[in-house]
């Protein structure tokens, strides 16, 4: 769909001078996602943490000519033949444009809201209905104030059904989303505690969500959920309700029986007065509930031609993640098994680009035919080829008959195969080396066979790291700070155990100002991985100067001896103004100058030109605890005075910083010019602040289950005897993996299927034993050692230590696996 820029000016009510003719088909809000500059209209959005106006010059250089701005900055005057559409609020303008676009279509639109399951319900509906409807839907979980307008913008004349998600985190937000989605059918999945911070009560949140449905013809929900039913009632929406129920045989969709078997569930229900039996390939309650919502949609839409029963049996799980894994021969694998369509390909290609920091890796795409796209293959693959070229893919391997037939449209290194089998048998398959490979396939092509063979085989115990949670935590702290306050992210000690490279890449992508490591070699490793933002080395050694200079690492300077050596070294190398960071000891009594040293430091600095004090800082000893608040205040005062004196004497601006994570949480007023974020980034709040997300999950699997008769002992030195016939699970994690031996003999627990199970016997080097008698755990089941459901702080409390030690103790032999949601 295209709009002329003149039309858009009218629709969003912008002020604009000297408009140049232009046709817009793409709305761009993230400068990193640019692929078609001429057709893009960039919205300079202001968020708590960033300001899109900053990227306009950069985008102009990349040939973008159309911008929606709220601030007409003087620097824009020089950007010739660019259109600037000036509005009061750029996000509102984007929403207005999307709402206008939506009004042009008179098709059924399903709006889905609720706390959980929105994306799953949307994707299930897509699987069930794509043969009868040409469906447009939200890509992945684009359900925010920004995601919704971008999703709706995709609507075009060929679509016959829309499915969009709406999520809110604040009162009044649904008011904005309603005209954009303008659903004709509403689904509310369920209401939980998620995103509750900004609401007075769950009722307020639910009622707010329901406003999405004010103009719907039908509203679908779980009628047995008294809370939602009451909310529907008080919102005066009951006359449109299609409440399904397991208890009320008068309900429009009555669920008579739900019968769970080993790998499937039989749902017996009365639908349109007819009793029907559906078999679905899931047994968990959430999936069953999601499927019933879909059944209710079918009841309303009454799709005719097909055998619905069969389609339910063929439902496939929805993969939400983009996994990054270490592959063989120095390859990295990104596995995206999410639905294969051009939108999700676009998103996955962006993700691949953001991971492409090490430019020595070749960018390879393994793509299957895109099925059910509703577009003719010829034009579809032309579009794909265009996209793939713009995303700088070096090599494409296409699998499927269509790709083989239309392969000539790709103008890069390419190969095509009819089937996944053909590809697996080919010589190419054994020759992957130094590549960043994106695997993107429709389910029928079973790309998991490819990824299994390309993945490096490892120990079954892994540390899973959620990169989206890292970003969330980073932004969460950022939102507590003034926009101009810089942030250092501490990735010392291998990123508190989570692994520094992937984290550093993610933080660099999200525009963190500084990284900090403990020793120079850690910094050098990050440079090798392509990290280009400034890096501070906290404990530089005299022997490491070479590594410092060669990798452009900025040392912390804590003594005159180190300062002199550093100055001498810069002079010897003929370097000037090398940035250093002056550490003042205000009571920690670890490394640092004394506050009284400041005049002498400045004197020394002024008589040389080799180094420049980039920053001055100190470290708090007890910012997490109110019992030390008097001491902390004293530290803050001593530091403020010393830093001010240093700046005065040096007569240039020096960045001042003292707060660590708990400091940011509890002494925000002392953020000064910069803060240093450590443990909070990894999801642990030292002061008990809510709102962080869990980052790392240490998980393993059950290798074997043994039946141990009452009276027998378990493990080395016979430390645990069982007093009943027991089921004992053996899991492949021991003290060599970092599982502290003090957890032996019921001193610690793991979580299996949401149930806590005690560790029994002494923990061995590579394995330990778990009592699973009270569960129905099976061999092969996943086991969580720590994670969301078993917080690190619980483990550290048991050992009378701190979460930092648990996180950094996970041995390097435990593979780190990174993912985005
Ligand atoms: C490790 C460290 C931090 C981060 O501390 P957290 O408590 O993890 O936030 C900050 N500053 C210095 C000097 C550090 O060594």
Automatic annotation (TrEMBL):
It is an enzyme of class 5 (isomerase). Residues 695-819 form the Alanine racemase C-terminal domain. Keywords: ATP-binding, Isomerase, Ligase, Nucleotide-binding, Pyridoxal phosphate. The active site is at 492 (proton acceptor), 716 (proton acceptor). Its cofactor is pyridoxal 5'-phosphate. It catalyses: L-alanine = D-alanine. This is Alanine racemase. Substrate binds at residues 590, 765. GO terms for biological process: D-alanine biosynthetic process. The keyword Nucleotide-binding applies.
């Amino acid at each position: 769909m295209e709009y002329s820029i003149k039309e858009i000016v009218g629709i969003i009510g912008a002020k604009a001078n000297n408009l140049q003719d232009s046709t817009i088909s793409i709305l761009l809000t993230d400068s990193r996602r640019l692929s078609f500059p001429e057709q893009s209209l960039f919205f300079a959005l202001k968020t708590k943490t960033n300001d899109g106006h900053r990227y306009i010059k950069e985008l102009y250089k990349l040939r973008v000519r159309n911008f929606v701005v709220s601030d007409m900055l003087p620097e824009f005057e020089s950007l010739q033949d660019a259109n600037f559409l000036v509005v009061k609020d750029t996000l509102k303008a984007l929403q207005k444009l999307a709402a206008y676009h939506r009004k042009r279509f008179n098709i059924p639109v399903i709006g889905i809201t609720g706390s959980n399951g929105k994306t799953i319900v949307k994707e299930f509906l897509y699987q069930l209905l794509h043969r009868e409807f040409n469906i447009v839907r939200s890509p992945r979980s684009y359900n925010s104030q920004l995601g919704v307008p971008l999703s709706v913008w995709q609507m075009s004349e060929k679509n016959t059904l829309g499915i969009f998600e709406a999520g809110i985190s604040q009162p009044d937000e649904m008011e904005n989303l309603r005209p954009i989605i303008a659903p004709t059918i509403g689904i509310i999945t369920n209401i939980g505690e998620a995103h509750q911070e900004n609401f007075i009560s769950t009722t307020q949140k639910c009622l707010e969500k329901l406003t999405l449905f004010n103009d719907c013809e039908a509203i679908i929900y779980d009628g047995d959920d008294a809370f939602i039913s009451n909310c529907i009632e008080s919102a005066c929406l009951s006359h449109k309700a299609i409440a399904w129920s397991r208890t009320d045989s008068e309900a429009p969709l009555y669920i008579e029986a739900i019968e769970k078997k080993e790998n499937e569930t039989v749902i017996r229900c009365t639908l349109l007065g007819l009793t029907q039996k559906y078999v679905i390939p899931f047994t968990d309650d959430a999936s069953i509930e999601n499927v019933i919502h879909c059944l209710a949609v079918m009841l309303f839409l009454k799709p005719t031609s097909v055998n619905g029963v069969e389609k339910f049996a063929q439902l496939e799980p929805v993969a939400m993640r983009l996994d990054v894994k270490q592959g063989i021969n120095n390859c990295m694998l990104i596995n995206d098994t999410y639905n294969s369509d051009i939108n999700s390909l676009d998103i996955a290609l962006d993700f691949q680009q953001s991971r492409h920091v090490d430019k020595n890796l070749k960018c390879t795409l393994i793509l299957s035919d895109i099925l059910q796209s509703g577009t003719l293959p010829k034009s579809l693959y032309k579009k794909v080829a265009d996209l793939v070229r713009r995303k700088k893919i070096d090599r494409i391997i296409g699998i499927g008959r269509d790709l083989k037939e239309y392969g000539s449209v790709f103008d890069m290194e390419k190969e095509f195969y009819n089937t996944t089998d053909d590809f697996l048998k080919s010589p190419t398959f054994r020759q992957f080396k130094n590549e960043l490979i994106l695997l993107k396939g429709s389910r029928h092509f079973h790309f998991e066979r490819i990824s299994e063979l390309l993945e490096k085989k490892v120990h079954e115990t892994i540390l899973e790291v959620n990169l989206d949670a890292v970003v969330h935590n980073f932004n969460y702290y950022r939102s507590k700070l003034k926009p101009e306050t810089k942030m250092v992210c501490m990735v010392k000690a291998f990123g508190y155990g989570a692994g520094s490279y992937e984290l550093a890449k993610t933080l660099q992508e999200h525009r963190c100002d500084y990284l900090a490591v403990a020793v120079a070699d850690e910094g050098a490793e990050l440079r090798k991985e392509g990290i280009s933002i400034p890096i501070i080395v906290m404990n530089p050694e005299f022997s490491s100067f070479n590594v410092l200079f060669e990798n452009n690492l900025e040392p912390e300077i804590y003594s005159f001896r180190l300062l002199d050596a550093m100055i001498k070294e810069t002079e010897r190398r003929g370097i000037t103004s090398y940035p250093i960071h002056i550490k003042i000891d205000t009571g920690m009594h670890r490394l640092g100058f004394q506050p009284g040293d400041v005049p002498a430091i400045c004197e020394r600095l002024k008589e040389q030109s080799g180094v420049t004090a980039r920053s001055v800082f100190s470290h708090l000893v007890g910012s997490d605890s109110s019992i030390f608040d008097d001491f902390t205040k004293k530290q803050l005062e001593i530091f403020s005075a010393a830093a001010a004196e240093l700046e005065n004497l040096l007569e240039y601006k020096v960045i001042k910083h003292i707060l660590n994570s708990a400091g940011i949480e509890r002494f925000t007023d002392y953020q000064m010019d910069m803060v240093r974020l450590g443990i909070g980034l990894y999801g642990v709040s030292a002061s008990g602040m809510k709102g962080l997300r869990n980052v790392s999950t240490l998980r393993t699997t059950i290798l074997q289950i043994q039946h141990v008769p009452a009276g027998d002992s378990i493990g080395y030195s016979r430390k645990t005897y069982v007093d009943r016939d027991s089921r004992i699970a053996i899991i492949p994690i021991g003290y060599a993996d970092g599982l502290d031996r003090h957890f032996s003999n019921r001193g610690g627990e793991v979580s299996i299927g949401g149930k806590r199970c005690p560790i029994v016997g002494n923990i061995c080097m590579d394995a330990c034993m778990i009592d699973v008698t009270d569960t129905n755990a099976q061999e092969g089941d996943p086991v969580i050692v720590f994670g969301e459901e078993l917080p690190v702080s619980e483990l550290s409390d048991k050992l009378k230590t701190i979460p930092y030690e648990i996180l950094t103790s996970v041995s390097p032999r435990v593979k780190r696996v990174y993912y985005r949601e």
